[in-house]
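Hey, resending since the last one bounced:
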Amino acid sequence: MTDTGARVLGPGRYGLARLRPGDRIVTGTRTVSIADIDAFAALSGDRFAIHMDADAARRYGFADRVAHGLLVLSLVDGLKNAAPAQFDAIASLGWDWQFRAPVLAGDTIGAAITVRALTPSSSKPDRGVATLDFEVTNQRGEIVQTGVNRLMICR
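The C-alpha cells again:
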C-alpha cells in the first residue's frame, strides 16, 4: 500500500481497510514502580542485581533500580491496548526490539506507534498484517526503547 500521509488516529477500532502507512497512535503513560519491578521479577525469575537492589544498580552506574527491558516492552504493549485508538487485532506475530536506555524505578513511559506497512493476507481475505514502528520515551522525552511489531489484524 502507498503512504498517503500521516495522521494521528482518533478514538475507535482500526482494521486494515481504515489504516494507511504513516498513521500514528500516541499512547497514554505509565509510571514504572518498584512494585512493578518486584512483581515482574517474581513472575519471570529474573532477579539480576540492577533490578532488585538500588545499591547494586548504583555500583553499575545507574541512579536507581533498573526496570527489566521485557517488563517495559510488556507495559508498552499494555499501553497500546489501552489507547483510545485501537488496532482491530487478532494476534501478535513477533517483535524486533531494542533497549536503548535504562528505564529506572519512578520513570514514566509512553509510546508513539506508527504504521510502517499494511499487507493484506492472500489466503485469508478477512485479515492482514500491520507492521508497526514503536518509539518509547520517558518523562524527559528521551528514547528508551524502539522496535517493530508485526500484528495480524482484521480487514
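The chain has one domain: 12-154.

Sorry for the duplicate.
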